[in-house]
Structures are given as C-alpha cells and as structure tokens.
Amino acid sequence: MWRRLFASVPALRAPKAACRSFKSSSRSAEKDFTKDLEAQFRAFREKAAAAMPGSDWSPVELTPGLPPERADVVIIGGGVVGWSIAYWLKKKSARDSVRVLVVEKDPTYSQASTVLSCGGIRQQFSLKENIQLSMTSADFLKNINDHLWLANEDPVDLQFNHSGYLFLASEKSAHIMEENYRTQRDAGAKVALLSPSRLKERFPWINADGVALASLGLENEGWFDPWSLLNALRRKALSMGVYQCFGEVTGFRCSSNVADIADGDFVDVKRIKYVNVQMPNSLEYQPVESSVVVNAAGANSGKIAAMLGIGSGPTESISAVPFPVEPRKRFVYVVHCPDGPGLDTPFLIDYSGVYCRREGLGGNYITGMSPDETEEPDVSNLDVDHEFFQEKVWPHLANRIPAFERLKVSGAWAGFYDYNTFDQNGIVGLHPLVHNMYFATGFSGHGLQQSPAVGLAVAELILDGGFKTVNLSAFDPRRILLREPMLESNIV
Ligand SMILES: Cc1cc2nc3c(=O)[nH]c(=O)nc-3n(C[C@H](O)[C@H](O)[C@H](O)COP(=O)(O)OP(=O)(O)OC[C@H]3O[C@@H](n4cnc5c(N)ncnc54)[C@H](O)[C@@H]3O)c2cc1C
What we know:
single chain, 492 residues, alpha/beta, eight-stranded mixed β-sheet, 18 strands, 32% helix, 24% strand, binds flavin-adenine dinucleotide
C-alpha cells in the first residue's frame, strides 16, 4: 500500500537505493504505529479502570466547596453578626433540627467591618434598646467560655480591656448627657457623671476647657479583639454543625404575590425560594433552596436588598423606598506618644467627635472621627486620607490631651461602617416586601458590640416567632417605610 501511494505521487518517488531503505524504515514505522496504539490502549484501559466505582476519577470537573443544595436558613455574610446568628440558631434548637448555611464571599475578610473596627463596647447610648443590647452582649463577652469554648482547645481570650468609656459634653450638649444618663441608669447600666473639676482630678492629663459635664462607664465598657470574637463564634458554630461556604450571593429566585395594600395600591410581595451562590473564580453558581434567608451582609446589605427589587418599585409606592444601608468609609490612625495618658486611659469620646483609646501597652493609641455628612470619603477603595488626620483629628485631639501635641503617626487603616442613612441604628426583622428575609444590619459603628445579643434576638425571631430576651420591635424594618426614625444621640 505504501509503495502504491509513493508511486502515484511523483514528488515522493524515491530512487532505488532510497527505496530499499524505505522498505526497512516503513517496517519500523508500522512497528512504531502499533506500539503507539498499544500505549494508547493501555492508557485508556487504566482510565476506564479508574472510573469504576471506588476510584477518584470523575469525568465531570467538580468545583470544590459547593454549598449544600438545601438549607433551612441561609445567612448571607460571615461577619460577626452572621456567625452570631448561626451560633444562636444551633444553640436554641435541637442539634440537627435546623440546617444552617453561612455564605461568605471573602475568606480573607479583607474588607469586613468586623475586623477593621475599633473593638469598643459601651452602655452609654440614648436608646434603651441599644443599652440593653450592649448589656446583654457584655454579659456574653464576660462569660465567653461558657458559650464558645471548644473541648480540647485553649479557652477563648478576647483581650477584654475593662477601661470604660468617657464621654465629654459641652455646655450645649450637657442636658442631653444628663437625659441619657437617666435612661442608662434606668436600664441598669453603671455610669457616673463627673463635673469638670472631678474630671480633672480623675484624669489629670485632660484639658477640661469647654467641658461642662462628663460621663464615665463604670462597668461592662472598654474594648476587645474583634477577630477573636468572630473566630470563636465561627469555630463554635461549625462544631455545632453549621455549614459554611465561600461564595458570593449574586441573586435570588423568588415567587411573588401581588397584594392589595390600601386604596387600590398594589405591591409585589416576594418569597425567596433559591439563593444563588456564585463560586469564587468560576462562572458556576449553586442555587440553594431555603425557607428562611438572613441578610447579614453588613455594608453590602443594601445591595442585597436591591437584588430583591426593594427600592425599584413605581415612584411613590412603598417598593420605591430603598433599603437605607450603605458603606461609609472611616479612618483609624495609630499614634505613638510615649508621654501620653498611659494605662489609665478610657475610650474617650470628645464632643468634637474625636475619639481616642489606648492600643496595647507600648505608648500607642488609636484615634479618629467621623467626617461631616457633606465630606463623606470615596468608598470605591479603602485608601487612608492622611490629611484628614492633620486637618480634622489632630487639632481636636491635641486640644483635649495636650501630651498629643507631640506624637508620631505609626499606622492607619480604613474600614466601612454598615451605615444606616435613615437613623443610624440597627435594622432587625422581616422586611414587609420579602416574606422570608430577616435583616440584621445597619448598626453604623456599634454592630460589633451588639452582635452577641443581636444574634440571639434574630434566632428568637426565627425560631420562636418573637423577641424574648431584648425587645427589638423598635428596630423593625417597617419603620423605614413608615418614616418613623429611631434616633440615637450617641453615635460616634
Ligand atoms: C473603623 C470602624 C470602627 C468601628 N468601631 C466599632 C466599635 O468600636 N464598636 C462596635 O461595636 N462597632 C464598631 N464598628 C462597627 C462594626 O464593625 C460593624 O457594625 C460590625 O462589624 C458589623 O458586622 P457585620 O457582620 O454585619 O458586617 P461585616 O463584618 O462587614 O460582615 C459582613 C460580611 O458579609 C460579606 N458579604 C457581603 N456581601 C456578600 C454577598 N453578596 N455574598 C456573601 N457574602 C457577602 C462580607 O464579605 C462580610 O464579610 C466599627 C466599624 C468600623 C469600620
């Protein structure tokens, strides 16, 4: 056959001698070909054998870490609020009766508010709900190992500094401080009011000029390590059977009901059937069927609400009202000042808005302030504005603590508040336009300290149908649609 082929193609016709060598080389080519074929058969047989039951080989490429196809409760966001809810859901229910899944898009937590926060806890709020939330949480933190200890592991160490908060009021704001003090005492918080002279006696490093009144937390106030709390909640919840998945919630599949609300006004009320979880670095997504969904996505929770059409209904209808939580960037500066106030430094909140607290024991402090509403920084990144420290923070800081006239900025970071633009308070409960989505977000700078109690409150709402420990009906999402803000005067 080879000869016939060569003969028919003149260009390939070889001289006689060459033909002889061709004869022998064609024999070896045939041999090579069969050898090759045998090798291919061998490889195929091996692959087929590996595909038999009991082998690891699969003809389908699987994405590792896919979430389960079904869960009773899907929690969007694995920050401190999400994991606290997961922990309490398991704690309150019989071990395997509730299948809980936490979906977190960023396993490094590089932008999560929890790990970028200042770790403060205080009872000095103006609303009784906020005071109760922080008191319940303080109790949890003080007894953390009764809740979150894992057998055969070291006890959880939150590095809780019980140094108190010290609020300073000017002449203009002193009456509000007195009013808040009464509310705090009525709620059971231990707080003392100090006159300017008592303040100076107690903290001689303070310049009391302009201070009309001060209030100092005597118990349950200070700061702790946010990462330790997040990690302890997460590990405990996982040990109790909570599922976790690293992926991003990108959408929902819902059924919808058109409801007649009043005077011929109709609204589309949704029920989530599936939560779509997109896997990292992949186009693959997994729909997770779920009865209950919790929006604990922090600064991103407004975007999650928008995916459900909240805020995009016809003008003037209730579905046109957006969910009012968005990221707001806040800078934290680390300063080194060997002559600073030292060990006996509470978490100081000046009436200018500047705050400061000790950071460790080596003459370091952290400080910052919230910018004016009109000067909110760009939220497309987490870059730090160093001029903000020079122009806004430092003058107030050095005025209140003169030792800070000489300091060195040794570091800085920025994080996002889960900022509730409506009334700067937590939003906890079911949204009227989505039957089965609970919200736990919008804490605007005080969500870390409230997370243990908020987790319990949401678990009660889901499992018991109402609040039992702390009544958070005042924080229900309906207040947004009714335009009834719950204003907190002690926002930092
Ligand atoms: C600078 C700064 C200082 C603060 N100081 C204090 C303080 O002293 N005391 C205090 O109590 N609070 C403080 N806070 C506020 C506190 O950090 C937050 O209120 C709290 O951490 C909110 O917790 P969270 O779990 O709701 O949010 P986060 O920790 O942000 O967690 C939400 C998670 O959801 C994930 N997520 C978002 N979208 C999706 C999605 N589509 N799919 C899957 N996952 C998603 C995010 O990746 C994130 O990890 C501070 C905040 C900042 C920024």
